[in-house]
Specification:
The protein is about 40% helix and about 15% strand. By secondary structure, the protein is α/β, with parallel strands linked by helices. It has a single domain, classed as NAD(P)-binding Rossmann-like Domain (Rossmann fold, 3-Layer(aba) Sandwich), CATH 3.40.50. A seven-stranded parallel sheet has the order 3-2-1-4-5-6-7, sandwiched between helices. It starts with a strand and ends in a 15-residue tail after the last strand. It binds NADPH dihydro-nicotinamide-adenine-dinucleotide phosphate and 2-hydroxyethylsulfonic acid. The site of 2-hydroxyethylsulfonic acid (8X3) has 6 residues, from loops. 2-hydroxyethylsulfonic acid binds next to loops.
């Protein structure tokens, strides 16, 4: 029987690659994001296998209304992939912008909590419930000017552990996938559309692709029900830590 997977941030990067791969593998997908045209393109490509939900994870009401609006078989969610998130800005903490800090805490932490809270009642009815949280190496190690983004991803790490502990009695598999540098729209968002600065982040070495992470998520989902990959860190071979990256001279 095919499982139904609810993916936040499916309009771009890791989330979109995951939606595409899992749709191809026969999962039923609920693809979420704010950019409706991007989601519509997924729906057009995958037809009945995909249902789209357009909402902002920061808005509690939108989150709960979106989940309540799910039709027919899409109401029966087996898997939640908490992926929506971004960095906003990269400044020393004394120079950081309050708006950027609010965005990261509201999206990466509170948004993840709102979505999880809205989905748990249905997820707990699944015969094979699973949550995959997309953390980051930034949630394992603080780097210069990473401050609030790192704090938001450390929070994802804590929430991942908390969900695993509190949902243990319900038999929910909870695990995190924590990538290092993946080439997506992440740096475009972080640097507010400064494309040369964003693309420079991935120059001179071989970064991960969104498809690399999608394959790992698919592997995590394909383990037998008694196997839970609780916390996985993946970096490009050229990356040793948040600050040590082997780059061509
Ligand atoms: P992208 O910018 O390509 O994708 C981010 C996704 O999050 C988009 O689909 C976007 O959709 C969604 N999103 C952002 N804000 C909101 C919001 N307020 N409400 C709803 N959806 C939102 O970046 P990535 O694919 O790289 O990022 C995905 C996750 O991976 C993030 O949690 C990020 O922190 C994490 N990560 C990324 C790494 C990297 O190097 N790229 C490394 C480690 C972790 P839309 O704009 O349509 O709403
Ligand atoms: C994204 C990886 O190193 O840009 O979470 O913070 S990094």
């Amino acid at each position: 029987m095919s499982r139904t997977v609810f993916i936040t941030g499916a309009s771009s990067g890791i989330g979109r690659a995951t939606a595409e791969l899992l749709a191809e593998q026969g999962f039923r997908i609920i693809a979420c994001g704010r950019r409706e045209a991007r989601l519509k393109a997924l729906k057009e490509k995958w037809g009945d296998a995909v249902h789209t939900l357009c909402f902002d994870v920061r808005d509690k009401q939108e989150v709960f209304d979106a989940v309540a609006s799910l039709p027919g078989v899409f109401k029966e969610i087996d898997v939640l992939v908490n992926n929506a998130g971004n960095a906003h800005g990269m400044d020393a903490i004394d120079k950081g912008s309050l708006e950027d800090w609010d965005a990261m805490i509201d999206i990466n932490v509170k948004g993840l909590l709102y979505v999880t809270k809205a989905i748990l009642p249905v997820l707990l009815k699944s015969g094979n419930p699973q949550i995959i949280n997309i953390g980051s190496t930034a949630g394992k190690e603080v780097y210069p000017k990473g401050n609030v983004y790192c704090a938001s991803k450390f929070a994802v790490d804590a929430i991942n552990q908390a969900l695993r502990i509190d949902l243990n009695e319900h038999g929910v598999r909870v695990g995190a996938v924590n990538p290092g540098l993946v080439q997506t729209e992440f740096s475009e968002v972080r640097f507010k559309g400064d494309s040369p600065r964003a693309s420079a982040v991935y120059q001179g070495f071989h970064p991960l692709t969104p498809e690399d992470i999608a394959e790992i998520i698919s592997f995590v989902l394909s383990r037998p029900a008694h196997v839970n990959i609780a916390d996985l860190v993946v970096m490009p071979t050229d990356q040793a830590s948040s600050t040590i990256v082997r780059k061509a001279k």
